[in-house]
């Protein structure tokens, strides 16, 4: 695959597919280089109208246009879709599955030998240009194919190469992570509302606090616990709030949720 322009087929355009599409287009991907397929024709039509990409309900038709095929339907559909498209893939194409829990070996075993396979786990925050994709290229991938897959996901955020066994452990932190932080954000906004603060003001404050804390953590070499001590002077209100969270086992509950 030596062309500089890569044609992408996105098979499945639900929550995650659309997040990737929006983030990638905002990151410079040309709509005319994208084919999208989904199950419902009216859904495809809406995506074509909104984004100016090519659309179809025929997975094989989308796949045969593409150098890079992203499988973005649910885990229960993905291997059936592979069976639909495998006879229609271009020589040297690469197929990347974002389906949680579908093993690379299952993908590779169903694809023709001339096609590369990779597994990726993106995050919904791709739609805001701050995604994080865990990427595991299969042994079947060439360097050019890995570069093409990396470039696609890098349009909407960061890409981290990981081992396939790490997906199950890292997924709850990365692709599941926004749900945990939004849970905390929602609770903070609600607590402010209990004390009479309008939710839009609470939300603005919490948003900036989350963005500022992420930037601070990124800038510093210190551990999160060390940074937290800077906001929690001994005997002060900050440390008492953390003590209340600990008394109610919030930290233990988070660790349990992420390790169950
Ligand atoms: N949501 C996340 O945060 C997240 C994070 C990481 C990975 N993932 C992975 O991303 C994949 C999609 O998740 P999602 O949350 O986006 O699911 P979703 O919202 O249910 O979307 C599924 C999409 O697949 C389409 N589809 C279903 N069967 C199809 C078929 N046979 N051919 C073509 N398209 C088909 C659906 O089309 P219609 O809309 O027309 O019905 C829909 O657009 C899953 O495998 C999941 O493990 C999700």
What are the SSEs and their pairings?
Elements: E1 8-11, H1 15-26, E2 34-37, H2 41-51, E3 54-56, H3 59-64, E4 68-71, H4 75-85, E5 94-97, H5 104-108, E6 116-121, E7 131-137, H6 143-154, E8 157-161, H7 167-174, H8 177-194, H9 199-219, H10 224-230, H11 237-247, H12 250-259
Parallel strand pairs: 1-2, 1-4, 2-3, 4-5, 5-6, 7-8
Antiparallel strand pairs: 6-7
NADP nicotinamide-adenine-dinucleotide phosphate is lined by residues 11-17, 37-40, 43, 59, 72-75, 77, 81, 98-100, 121-122, 124, 175.
Subcellular location: Cytoplasm
Keywords: Amino-acid biosynthesis, Cytoplasm, NADP, Oxidoreductase, Proline biosynthesis, Signal
Pathway: Amino-acid biosynthesis; L-proline biosynthesis; L-proline from L-glutamate 5-semialdehyde: step 1/1
